[in-house]
């Protein structure tokens, strides 16, 4: 879910002089975790590095790419909150550059195909994940791209923030929406995602209904499946094959959330950490696939992330979609439900559970994440 274009984007960012510094919260010095499709594998990276494998450690460190979000955004951000929690923006890009070309043509640049805000609670025993539909109409703030000012917009699709201003603009847009400062940024690309799933040996899922989508090249009957990288990518990208769906991003988000939980279970079962060869393959693939903020841009930093992640199981993650309703001006777009969205962000800002009332009338959480995949 971020891109080999993540590599291109990072190169552009580095060309603009973006390097890392700074971090939020002065809580425990251990890096906590981002519960994402790739960060399960990054745990393996951290453990391998922490074992002191010399050359291997050096090589994996060289694979990592970083973007200095703090330097790019400066001081015009939400306040630092020292309450022991952690907020991470996880994104995937839909660029069709390089190996991603077979998924279609670019429509003017990379956009965020997937966006999740992950809040890890104080104590590091549970987390909440808020998915933002790419078609959500939002107020996009002013951004900067290649040293040039990019005017904001009162009504813009959420995924255009990445397109016009890269990772920094995506983070700025999320922070503007939520009022919550993002501690970290993680991005994964199409081809990197596929390679990572293949390195893990596939992911086991059970579909409760048939999923049929020519656009994402995915055809699954009800029942148990072991998805390779290509099919896993098809699952998290399918929009039109969701039974009873409307072809929007909302059904796809439910599949993504269910897949992440399945992946977390899989990582614990495939013996990655007890198999040095597989461990190295996963670590090498993961570090090549991701772009992070520069506070996470080393194996030593990821070792702290691994320690924090180990205490959270899939049963301790609450996954929701940003409360939205269909846009009457354009049925292919959605609008945030103002009152309910505030409930979500206020809960996370104060390190509280997201109340059920926040998603009660939302178009994004009907059916639940286990409607199609378990």
Output the keywords:
single chain; 374 residues; alpha+beta; 7-stranded mixed sheet; two-stranded antiparallel ribbon; globular; disordered N terminus
Describe this protein's structure.
It is built from eleven helices and 17 strands. The protein has 374 residues and is of the alpha+beta class. The chain has a seven-stranded mixed β-sheet, sandwiched between helices. Strands 5-8 form a two-stranded antiparallel sheet. The chain has a two-stranded antiparallel sheet with strand order 6-7. Strand 16 and strand 17 form a beta hairpin. Helix 2 packs across helix 9 and helix 6 packs across helix 7 (229-237).
Short description:
The chain is 36% helix and 22% strand. The protein is an alpha+beta fold and 374 residues long.
N-to-C order of helices and strands: HHHEHEEEEEEEHEHEEEEHHHEHEEEH
Question: For the CA atoms, what is the radius of gyration?
Answer: 19 Å
**Approximate shape:** globular
Low-confidence stretches: 1-38, 40-52, 103-108
**SS-derived structural category:** alpha+beta
């Amino acid at each position: 879910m971020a891109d080999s274009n993540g590599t291109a984007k990072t190169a552009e960012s580095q060309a603009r002089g973006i390097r890392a510094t700074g971090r939020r919260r002065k809580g425990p010095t251990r890096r906590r975790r981002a519960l994402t499709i790739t960060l399960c594998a990054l745990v393996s990276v951290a453990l391998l590095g922490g074992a002191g494998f010399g050359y291997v450690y050096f090589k994996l460190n060289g694979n990592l790419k970083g973007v200095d979000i703090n330097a790019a955004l400066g001081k015009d951000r939400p306040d630092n909150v020292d309450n022991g929690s952690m907020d991470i923006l996880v994104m995937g890009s839909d660029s069709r550059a390089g190996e991603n070309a077979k998924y279609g043509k670019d429509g003017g640049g990379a956009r965020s195909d997937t966006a999740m805000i992950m809040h890890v609670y104080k104590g590091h025993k549970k987390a909440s994940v808020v998915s933002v539909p790419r078609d959500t109409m939002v107020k996009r703030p002013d951004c900067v791209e290649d040293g040039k000012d990019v005017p904001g917009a009162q009504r813009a699709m959420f995924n255009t923030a990445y397109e016009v201003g890269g990772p920094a603009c995506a983070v700025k847009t999320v922070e503007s929406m939520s009022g919550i400062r993002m501690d970290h940024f993680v991005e994964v690309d199409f081809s990197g995602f596929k390679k990572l799933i293949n390195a893990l040996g596939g992911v086991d899922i059970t579909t409760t209904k048939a999923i049929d989508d020519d656009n994402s090249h995915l055809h699954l009957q009800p029942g148990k499946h072991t998805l390779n990288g290509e099919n896993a990518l098809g699952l998290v990208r399918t929009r039109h094959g969701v039974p009873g769906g409307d072809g929007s991003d909302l059904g796809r988000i439910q599949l993504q959330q269910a897949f992440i939980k399945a992946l977390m279970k899989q990582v614990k079962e495939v013996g990655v950490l007890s198999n040095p060869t597989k461990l190295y393959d996963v670590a090498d693939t993961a570090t090549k696939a991701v772009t992070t903020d520069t506070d996470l841009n080393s194996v030593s930093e990821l070792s702290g992330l691994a320690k924090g992640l180990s205490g959270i199981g899939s049963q301790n993650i609450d996954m929701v979609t940003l409360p939205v309703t269909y846009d009457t001006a354009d049925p292919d777009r959605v609008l945030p439900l103002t009152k309910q969205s505030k409930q979500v962000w206020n809960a996370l800002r104060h390190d509280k559970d997201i109340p059920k009332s926040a998603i009660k009338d939302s178009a994004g959480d009907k059916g639940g994440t286990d409607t199609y995949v378990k």
